[in-house]
């Protein structure tokens, strides 16, 4: 006597769905998925404005070009120069430092404000709209605004020397880095708050109702329900912060111009100096590729450490 093993669960599920699909086709209610043609415009746009420029930058990194004459092949000279460039190594360290500080400041603020904005408090909509105003301004406008407000002679530090000392916050490295982190958080925390607000509203209300029946208070619900449910959103937000922090340029250009000295010369600003001030487009292209590589590696590490790549649920955090 022979026995047959049961079909795998996936096969059984597929067999069960086939009659339903056939019935849907006969009734004309079948849902058709978009074909590949729908992705062509976005694919062409990405290839034209992302892949192609990246390839051209990679080619330029192996050339010696001043922007006027024809590029001359230089082999690995630009890359060897970067390995022995103290300013480049320092700029990478400063880029990572400012990025880490930005993530450390913006993440808790964004989570708390996002969870609050997702609630039903009185005047919540009005206060949220006011709080989101910095997000509507360009980075250049924000930098000019804070440059004027932090002026050591006429700005806020001049009126509160008991708190700011001589008032020249941008004249020392610690003060300049603190200003860059603060200004970045002031402008971009609303964006991440908006992400957390939407994710919080997507959390099933039944979870909070069940927790309340078990006697869990607001704080306990936040740590045992809200935060775990926001895990995917936290990873996404942090990756955006990392990429944004490593590519920050206009804020440094307007607020500190890499100073004092080279104390805030991050990699993006150093790339600008090499390419557009020193007319070394080959060296600037090499720096740009290093930035892309560092941002990619850090993002992959965040995804792998957080386990984001293994999450398959369509529900947040489940």
From TrEMBL:
Read off the SUPFAM superfamilies from this record. Answer: MetI-like
Domain ABC transmembrane type-1, by residue range, is 92-302
The record describes its membrane topology as:
Multi-pass membrane protein
Concerning its family, UniProt says: Belongs to the binding-protein-dependent transport system permease family.
| Main localisation | membrane
Q: Name one GO biological process term.
A: transmembrane transport
What is the source species?
Answer: Actinacidiphila yanglinensis
Designated name of the protein: Xylobiose ABC transporter membrane protein
Tell me which InterPro entries the record gives. ABC_transporter_permease, MetI-like, MetI-like_sf
The residues that cross the membrane are 35-62, 92-118, 125-149, 169-188, 234-255, 281-303
């Amino acid at each position: 006597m022979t026995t047959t093993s049961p079909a795998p669960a996936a096969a059984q599920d597929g067999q069960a769905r086939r009659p339903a699909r056939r019935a849907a086709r006969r009734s004309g209610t079948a849902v058709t998925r978009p074909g590949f043609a729908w992705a062509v415009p976005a694919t062409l746009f990405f290839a034209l404005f992302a892949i192609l420029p990246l390839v051209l930058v990679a080619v330029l990194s192996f050339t010696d070009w001043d922007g006027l004459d024809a590029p001359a092949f230089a082999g690995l000279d630009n890359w060897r120069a970067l390995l022995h460039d103290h300013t480049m190594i320092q700029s990478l360290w400063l880029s990572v430092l400012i990025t880490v500080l930005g993530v450390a400041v913006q993440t808790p603020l964004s989570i708390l404000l996002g969870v609050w904005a997702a609630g039903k408090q009185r005047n919540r909509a009005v206060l949220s709209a006011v709080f989101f105003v910095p997000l509507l301004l360009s980075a250049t406008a924000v930098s000019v605004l804070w440059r004027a407000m932090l002026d050591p002679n006429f700005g806020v530090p001049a009126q509160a020397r008991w708190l700011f000392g001589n008032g020249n916050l941008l004249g020392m490295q610690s003060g300049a880095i603190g200003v860059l982190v603060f200004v970045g958080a002031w402008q971009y925390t609303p964006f991440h708050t908006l992400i957390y607000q939407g994710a919080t509203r997507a959390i099933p209300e039944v979870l909070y109702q069940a927790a309340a029946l078990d006697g869990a208070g607001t704080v306990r619900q936040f740590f045992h329900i809200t935060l775990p449910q926001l895990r995917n959103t936290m990873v996404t937000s942090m990756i955006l912060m990392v990429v944004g922090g490593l590519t920050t340029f206009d804020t440094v250009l307007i607020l500190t111009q890499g100073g004092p000295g080279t104390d805030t010369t991050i990699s993006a600003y150093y790339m600008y100096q090499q390419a557009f001030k020193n007319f070394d487009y080959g060296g600037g292209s090499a720096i740009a590729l290093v930035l892309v590589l560092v941002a990619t590696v850090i993002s992959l590490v965040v995804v792998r450490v957080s386990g984001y790549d293994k999450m398959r649920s369509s529900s947040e955090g489940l």
